Amino acid sequence: MVGDTEPGTVRPGGRTARVRAAVLQAAGDALAEGGFAGLDLADVARRADVGKTTVYRRWGTVTGLVADLLTDMAEQSLPRTETGSLLGDLKANAQLVRRTLADDRQGALFKAVIAAATCERRTAEALRRFYETRVAEWAPCVERAVERGEVPEGTDPHEVVRAVSAPLYYRLLTTGDHPDEAAADRAAEAAVAAAKAGAYVRREGGPHQEDPA
Q: Whole-prediction pTM value?
């Protein structure tokens, strides 16, 4: 029974873990192919070669399944790279984002989820948690840069990390073009330049900055 537990908050093992992996793979494929509107639990069950009852009992709704898919994607994403310089670290981050968005399946999947999040509350919350996890993974790169004196004290690490990926997503969503390596490097360079100039220093009395969108 689904109950009040959010999908993905309980980590199964053994056969249950294999079923979850198969279902999430199938859900990602279906999202990439047909978008959120075309996602159907029965179709996902067929693709994953598991019983419909299992899928309905564990995930309950399409939005519950998408929430679990985003949780899994955040956990499976590659860890941060620390090169010893903020520019090197953020270029690595930008190239990771670029490769994800340039991938035929992953790029289409993210576009579908982002589109759904504009009008579906639970999907929006799941997407926010996904980026919250990813931004928090890379924030220590900026914290180390503050310690090294590369950027000013009080620089908001979350804002800097978001500034790297934002133009890459914007390009994908507004033009349909996959960002290339040069675009990824420019995004990192711009974020570092702005950070060094103090653009991301927390302002006294300003909004709390630790809830990345």
A: 0.79
